[in-house]
Amino acid sequence: MQAGSNIIDFKTIEYDHQRNVLTVLDQTRLPNEEVYLTLKTPEDVFEAIKSMNVRGAPLIGITAAYGLVLAGVQGDVQETMRAAELLASARPTAVNLTWALERMKRQISEEPGLHKRLLRAAREIEEIDKTACRKIGEHGATLIKNNASIMVHCNAGALATSGIGTALGIIYTARQQGKKISVYSCETRPLLQGARLTTWELTRQGVDTFAICDNMAASYMSNMDIVLVGADRIAANGDTANKVGTLGLAIIAKHFNIPFYVAAPLSSFDSHVASGINIPIEIRSPDELCSFKGQTIVAEAAQICNPAFDVTPANLISGIVTENGILTPPYGQAITTA
Ligand code: MRU
């Protein structure tokens, strides 16, 4: 696949409208193998999102949109509606999934040309994401000084989008402006998106990158200039759900008086949810946590907690970088007018 932008040298997703297949980079195999999956049905797409071959809030939305394009190949309205329901149930926290599917569903009608309309809408969603990433990068780069040390969590990069990423998009843009940057990437247990994915994409782009265990964050925080994270869902009051561990980083950053910024497109905001308490948090399989390299690491009789996300309250967030600018508290008002 051709690279998605002139900053990034790989592509996460591509729809082939001649063969009607969706190709995605399999993120479960990184950093060791660069393998692409060919998805042919909405069921394939559902599995790829659920199993996290494809992950990251914006990319989940885009992938689901193309899943609906696959569902509409025969022009069957009932089949397409059924697929929309299935895809919406793949992962519960990232609101970009529902955002994308709601846009796509507006195209579903008995009018001729269903497949064409769905394809156009999915391509639009992909373009909106690319543009949002670029603008987030431009706005966010104003926060980054030369020789900055930046802590990041999980992967809010090009791998999580169809563009240059959100939090990492800021870093790429600042580097393009000539700023020298060091990035400290928290490993992000249990699925290690920070260790496996963020270090893969940053080092590929030549960024000075350090991997740290999640429990090293407090030791390194006082040396940071800023913390940058992504978001899966932002409530109307600014409370933000992101990969579990984000809340801990925000608390530590507050302690050391380090600016803590969220980077997210407007498709990650959910005006129907008043505060973080109402954000659904995905609970994933205990298996993800109780083994390492095929070996059991938790006593069999122990119970396992595996929430995939936590909620950082708005009062711990210095600002939210969106495509329309950097929102600052009070968030309620800033979000409504963004
Ligand atoms: O479970 P994941 O890997 O999909 O979680 C991803 C994150 O938490 C990201 O920070 C978030 O989706 C923002 S991606 C631009």
Based on helices, strands and strand pairing, what is the structural class? alpha/beta
Assembly type of the shown chains? single chain
Overall number of strands: 16
CATH architecture of the largest domain: 3-Layer(aba) Sandwich
The number of distinct helices, counting runs of at least 4 residues, comes to: 11
The CATH class of the largest domain is: Alpha Beta
Provide the domain count: 2
Instruction: Give the percentage of residues in beta strands.
Output: 15-25%
Bound molecules: 5-S-methyl-1-O-phosphono-5-thio-D-ribulose
Keywords:
Rossmann fold; 2 domains; binds 5-S-methyl-1-O-phosphono-5-thio-D-ribulose; 338 residues; Four Helix Bundle (Hemerythrin (Met), subunit A); alpha/beta
Short description:
This protein is an alpha/beta fold and 338 residues long. Helices cover 37% and strands 18% of the residues. The protein is built from eleven helices and 16 strands.
Structural features, described:
The chain is 37% helix and 18% strand. It is of the alpha/beta class. The protein folds into 2 domains: 13-133, translation initiation factor eif-2b, domain 1 (Four Helix Bundle (Hemerythrin (Met), subunit A)); 138-337, 3-Layer(aba) Sandwich (Rossmann fold). A hairpin with a 2-residue loop joins strand 15 and strand 16. Bound molecules: 5-S-methyl-1-O-phosphono-5-thio-D-ribulose (MRU). Residues 55-58, 94, 154, 156, 160-161, 166, 193, 230-232, 242-243, 308 line the site of 5-S-methyl-1-O-phosphono-5-thio-D-ribulose (MRU).
